[in-house]
Amino acid sequence: MGPDGTSKIVEALIKNVSVKDLNLEGNNFGNRGAFIIGEYIRKTHVLMSLNLSLNFINQYGIKKIVDGMKFNKSIKSLILCNF
Questions:
Q1: What does the alpha-carbon distance between residue 65 and residue 4 come to, in Å, rounded to a whole number?
Q2: String of b and e for 8-19 (b: at least 16 CB within 10 Å)?
Q3: So where are the chain's domains?
Q4: What are residue 19's phi and psi, to 5 degrees?
Q5: Domain 2-79: CATH architecture, name and number where available
Q6: What are the helix (H) ranges across 1-83?
Q7: φ, ψ for residue 58 (rounded to 5)?
């Protein structure tokens, strides 16, 4: 999918308030996609679980996700496994 696909998914998710569980495992979007997801996490208040495993995210992408989580109270499960 890559970062461009991630951007399109996030655009659709912003308009959709019924998605509560999102699995984006293994989409290879890397840090660029993580930055996009981090911004989405900051803005959404309906998502409850998110799986971002196996997307080649390093400490910079994870920092952006964590920054987004500081503003999000709805996500109860976040999976970031990269092995």
A1: 17
A2: ebbeebeeeeee
A3: 2-79
A4: -75, 120
A5: Alpha-Beta Horseshoe (3.80)
A6: 2-15, 30-43, 59-69
A7: -100, -165
Instruction: Give pLDDT tens digits for 18-68.
Output: 999 999 999 999 999 999 999 999 999 999 999 999 999 999 999 999 999
For the beta sheet containing 21-23, the strands, ordered from the edge strand earlier in sequence to the opposite edge, are: 21-23, 49-51, 77-79
- Structure tokens, 50: 């998110």
Q: Residue 68: what residue type?
A: G
Structure tokens at 35: 């930055």
Query: Residue 83 pLDDT more than 80?
Result: no
Name the pTM for this structure.
0.90
User: Which pLDDT belongs to residue 4?
Assistant: 85
